[in-house]
Amino acid sequence: MVKRADPGRDSSFSNEDMDFPASPLLTGAPAPGTHPRSGKSILIVEDDAVVANAIKETLIRLGYRVTGIAKTGELALEQVKEFMPDLVLMDIHPATGMDGIETAGRIHRLYDVPVIYLTTITDKPLLYRADVCEPFGYIVKPCDERELQSTIETAFHKHTHDLQIREAYHELEQRIAERTDELVRINRTLAESEQRFRGLFEGVPIGIYRTTPSGQILDINPALVSLLGYPNREMLMAVSIPDLYMDPEDRQRWRSRIDRDGTLHGFEVRFRKYDGTIIWVRDTGKTVSDESGKVLYYNGNIEDITERNQAVEALRTSEEKYRQLVDLAREGIWAIDAGGFTTYVNPKMAEMLGYTVEEMRERHLYSFMDDEGKTIAADTIERRLQGITEGHDFEFITKGGKRIYVYLAITPITDEKGVYSGALAVVSDITTQKQAEEALRASEQRYRDVVEDQTEFICRFLPDGTLTFINEAYCNCFRLNRDECIGNKHPVVFPPDDAQKMKRHLAALTPENPVAWISHRIVLPSGKIRWQRWSDRAIFDKNGGVIEYQSVGRDITRQKEAEIQLKKYKGTLEQRVQDRTSELSMTNLKLEKEIEDRKKIQKKLTISSNEKDLLLREVHHRVKNNLQLIIGLIDLTKTRAHEPIVISTLTDIMAKVQTMGLVHTQLYESKRFDKINMRRQVHDLVEMIAGFYDHDHLEVTTHIDCAEIYLPVDKAIPCALALNEIISNIHKHAFKGKRSGLVEISSPVKGDLIRFVIRDNGVGLPSGFDIEKSNRLGLRLMRTLVEQQLHGNVTLTSKAGTEVVIEFPIRPEESEDGSCTDS
Q: How far apart are CA 50 and CA 56, in angstroms?
């Protein structure tokens, strides 16, 4: 019985180490408002009392039971053994004793309890070593409550899942083991069955054969080779069966009876052995025919009855010698009186039926048979009384209730007056042979079922065209009756070309290449011509002669018709392609001429465009140089002037000229001669004015937030000059008496209206200032540029500085919008 821990017990720390209320923690009760988690118990392995108790408090608050706190790995193993917790929180590096990794490994091996590591160290070698113990998680101290709860629940889920997997795996292994044992038993049974079959054929003392109707040997067993005294199997296989008969007429009688009845039992005949010795044999045979009844081959066995015949001769002279031979005979001997009661059985006969000789005496022959066997036995004895020499197969019931098959060669016994007084039977156990025949019959039936289920036409025929087998599909195709066709020729009607092709096809088959494919036409009984594809295999004898042909075919008329139709469509398509190609060739010639003409025109346009570009650049270059010359002259005059008003005026003039120069500089440097990038123009303008009005004790900061605006030259120049006037006035007048100033320039674009807003945080406009009544030259110039050339308006506002707004319309195609913020 596993002992569960007292939730309040701590085998490593005293109550003095705890600095929290005792009742809920010592009793293991969940804190108010929490939900117990199915009573899951947890062992804490931690050498730091404060950390351990903090974790314990958190676990109890989350609804878990704490079985205890262990300071060392050794104490942890003891508590796991004693309380069997559901999970262990393991400090990976305790101060003393075993480390957490070794302790976790032992817990994993001995108790299969999930372990979660508590650690403050995350170096890779340590984590790699810890992973060998297959931990269920890591928690880095100090512990986060959510992480702690999530890791624990994940560990419980994973451990439960692992247990389910192991149980399923164990169950699967058991099933595999059981199935493996079953397969081993089945394989052993099959091997034993195969061994018995081999023993039947190879080890049975009776000679077994299989021959064709013409007498060619198809198969023999070692007992027959030994019976006829041949040195080896191959030499006997080369012999024809009729050559073994001492009297050729015996062979004819044998053929007549077996072909008539399908079976032949106890046919006694003389054979010539390899050394010329004459022996008596008993031949038992059976025909194997196809569905039409045509004989394919004979199965049978031959027993050397020379000794038996000699024994029978001896019996006539000495009953004692007879009994000795009968008692030692390999076959069962059974004598009955006229009423059918047993008068004598030899030990072999009694052994066959599982009785002793004494138990069988005076028992009726029919007591060992069922009703069908009784009828057959009575009929056989009657036929023997009529002088018909034959045997018959019977089914006997042994003492243990087992059914065996035997062959009875029954000889009636008559007195000197010819009155029937009983019968003598020689009995051979043919149970194994019957089972082999049944297995062979079942195998043949399975083969026939597979063949009959095929949709392909299947047939076998002799070199002269005689059919030996056809399947249902073949019959349906040619509207034939199977029973009427087997053994006869089926004259398939070919068109003349296909008939010659078929003859060459069959003649080309050789032992080295016995299989070939052919497609040909046939004429059906309805007169329709169909296409068929056949695979023909020639079966050769050992001398290379064709014994038989086996053919498998299918109807490919639809495929051939599709090929013919496709060939027809292909011819039509090729003609259309040729016509279209000729048409395209003429069109291409026209296009080539047109392209050549356009190239010439394009070349002229390119030359003209290059000349215009060169002329425009030259004009812009000269304008820019002239403006630079003017600026230089003004600057030279400015250096010689001494009056402030003159210097200020010259500076303003230089700024205006420089503004126009900046516009032409952009035109000169840009690939576009029709428009000016106002965003760049504002940047250059601010930089230029800052250079002109460089103040010794004033720092002016300008923030620019302008859209990507492109204006045509006729609007760019007045716009730039207006902006020059505003920014220049700000530098000259806005920040008097200040050490720093801020200028903000923005240009939002709304539809077809452009708006420039310039703000400063300077001293503002004078009280009562009215732009409409102002006579200052700069303001009048700015208003003239905006109102008359740009068809816009100017607004001035004084609030915490000055704000100037310029608005003017522009067509949408004259601008390209973007956004930019610079300082």
A: 10
